Hints:
Radius of gyration: 18 Å
Strand order of the largest sheet: 3-2-1-4-5-6
Distance between the termini: 39 Å
Strand content: 15-25%
Amino acid sequence: MSPPRVALVGTGGYGAVHFDNIERLVGAGGLRFAGCTDLRPPGPGLLQRVAGLGGTFFEDYETLLKAAPDVVVVATPPHRHRDMVCAALAAGAHVLVEKPPAVELADLDAMTAAATAAGRLCQVGFQSLGSAALARLRELMDGGELGEVTHIGATGCWARADAYYARAPGPGAVGSTAPRSTTAPCPTRSRTP
């Protein structure tokens, strides 16, 4: 079986980290590279790196999807995720979407429905998914040790220096350039299952 073909939508910001990882995995024989796209023109050296991996720099994500990648990594500003993720899923690709996955809960619901309809996987790139705490929580829930789960709440708090927000437009603030506090109380978002 040949390795999956991956495509990257968004090469700036954290997309550059994904590109580096794709390059490493292609070199190790674990992936094949279909190509990438970005709203901005490719930076210095990117076209050579893309060609060196056997990929194409596509004009837009719709054209990229016609190359039929098995997996699409979406690393664009969050307000663009819904359309790109849903299109990739409808095209038959599995998706890794960078966090935050959506601006509005309705967008997240639409992506979930698109993944279900397509029979494809959609994962959000949260570092904490590798935490043993999540597996332990699942064990406790499955074992009934927590009783009936009627509500799930989550809070994420990471201290971010101004340099984090300045590295690319939008991270953590969905494109906002307004001043932000790194010591403000953490908001809580919860849903009843």
